[in-house]
Write a structure and sequence with these properties.
52% helix; globular; 430 residues; 3-stranded antiparallel β-sheet; single chain; binds carboxymethyl coenzyme *A; mainly alpha; 18 helices
Length: 430
């Protein structure tokens, strides 16, 4: 980041100069950190649409061109060349692991993958059909009670211990919450298996019907987790940074991120897409009517899996997910009518002026649900899969933020529009 030019701001008789910062990809931002001190004014930016809340070296995305790169590597190459664990390592450590680092990281993850036996009992007390996202978030914070020493550690040591625990045990928890949801016995991680193999095995193995790992599905799971691994300052990552800025530990910050991800405008959209497609099929709706409904101003319905705060073109992750749909469905010999509806919906929306003018394209969630569904993962688990994928991104951002010289507690301002001062009338007279 360098400060070359300046912006001039004139308010009445006062003129001030504000530094303009330039990032490594040429993006420019006006540094307003001294604005209030100099003018007494704040800026108004609901939803932080124009606000760069931090500097970051993890992920670059260009929403106009549909570019997504982690630490400089294009998402398409990472999906093609790497396993999820390598991308997790890249996000957190800043460089791809070599062979030895890869094996060390894997064995560390394996060693940490067993849950404390007492944690297993927590699962018993959730009601039947408890939403797995509720279980995941409460288990993330519960994990911290089994690692109290983390509070005492410095950031680097905390990171190593907490990061490895979170990456390997949240995967175990995700699989266990699925088993709980299905009313099936838990399957423990197997140290001979790799990260995604273990995830699939823990979800689908059965004493009466052993689960055979299929390399195409293992590859697809790796790709699915990789396309979710990070997306710079999205809602859940910002939640992780905000909670972390108060000095809360990594577990607490991640639990907040999981809760933020749950909403249907964010990670919950993958579940909402499938529910929308199922509704269209069940009720025999015409795709054109659904598109019309999504455009109506007096109807809160939106085309789920469409639109993005940053992408104003096709989301590169959606392109990858669409390809995965074809590969996985073909491998499993499945013909999913929801895919046909999704393709028809995409075609109709992309030809419609409303969507064209607003630059609304399919996002990552539009096709991933169809792949998860084909792999046998129930709808309620989709956002959990997103969370497992996003975990290294959250961790990387938390670490980066803790080490950022600009880091301060997150505390936005507001524009007060409530009543002006008034006197309290005693209760008897009100
Ligand atoms: N269907 C119909 N209209 C839409 C949609 C949609 N999916 N998305 C945006 N619009 C319209 C919106 O009504 C507004 O119209 P107007 O200018 O006439 O008021 C315009 O497009 C701009 O939308 P916005 O709500 O101001 O945009 P935003 O940046 O605040 O919201 C979004 C982004 C992703 C929340 C939104 O596009 C949306 O709700 N999409 C559906 C949910 C979804 O798929 N979410 C997943 C996002 S990608 C993965 C992730 O982040 O986790």
């Amino acid at each position: 980041m360098h400060k070359a030019t300046k912006a001039t701001l004139t308010i009445g008789d006062t003129t001030i100069e504000l530094p303009v910062l330039t990032g490594t990809e040429g993006e420019r931002t006006i540094d307003i950190s001294a604005l209030r001190k100099q003018t007494g004014m704040t800026t108004f930016d609901p939803g932080y649409v124009n606000t760069a809340a931090c500097q970051s070296a993890i992920t670059f995305l260009d929403g106009e061109k549909g570019i997504l790169r982690h630490r400089g590597y294009p998402i398409e190459q990472l999906v093609k060349e790497c396993e999820f664990v390598e991308v997790a390592y890249l996000l957190v450590h800043g460089a791809l692991p070599d062979k030895r680092q890869r094996e060390d990281f894997s064995s560390k993850l394996n060693r940490h993958s067993m849950l404390h036996e007492d944690m297993r009992f927590f699962f018993r007390n959730y009601p039947e059909r408890a939403h797995p996202m509720a279980i995941l978030s409460s288990m993330a914070i519960s994990l911290s009670t089994f690692c109290p020493e983390v509070e005492e550690m410095d950031v680097d040591a905390q990171v190593d211990e907490a990061m490895t625990t979170l990456l390997s045990q949240l995967r175990t928890i995700a699989a266990f919450s699925y088993r709980k949801f299905e009313g099936k016995p838990f399957v423990y991680p197997d140290h001979k298996l790799r990260y995604c193999e273990n995830l699939l095995k823990m979800m689908f193995d059965s004493p009466v019907e052993p689960y055979e790992l299929d390399p195409v599905l293992v590859r697809a799971m790796n790709a699915l987790l990789i396309i979710h691994a990070d997306h710079e300052q999205n809602c859940s990552t910002s939640a992780v940074r905000l909670v972390g800025s108060s000095g809360a530990n990594l577990f607490a910050s991640i639990a907040a991120g999981i809760c933020a991800l749950w909403g249907p405008k964010h990670g919950g959209a993958n579940q909402a897409v499938i529910e929308m497609l199922e509704g269209i099929r069940r009720d025999g709706l015409k795709v054109s009517d659904v598109v019309t409904r999504a455009k109506a101003k007096d109807n809160p319905f939106r085309l789920m899996g469409f639109g993005h705060r940053v992408y104003k073109t096709y989301d590169p992750r959606a392109r990858i997910a669409k390809k995965l749909c074809d590969q996985v469905l073909e491998r499993l010999g499945i013909k999913d009518p929801l895919l046909d509806i999704a393709l028809e919906l995409e075609q109709a929306a992309l030809a419609d002026d409303y969507f064209v003018e607003r630059k609304l394209y399919p996002n990552v969630d539009f096709y991933t649900g169809i792949v998860f569904r084909a792999m046998g993962i129930p709808t309620d688990m989709f956002t959990v899969m997103f969370a497992i994928g996003r975990l290294p991104g959250w961790i990387a951002h938390w670490i980066e933020w803790m080490n950022d010289p600009y880091q301060r507690i997150g505390r936005p301002r507001q524009l007060y529009v409530g009543p002006v001062t008034q006197d309290v009338v005693p209760l008897a007279k009100r």
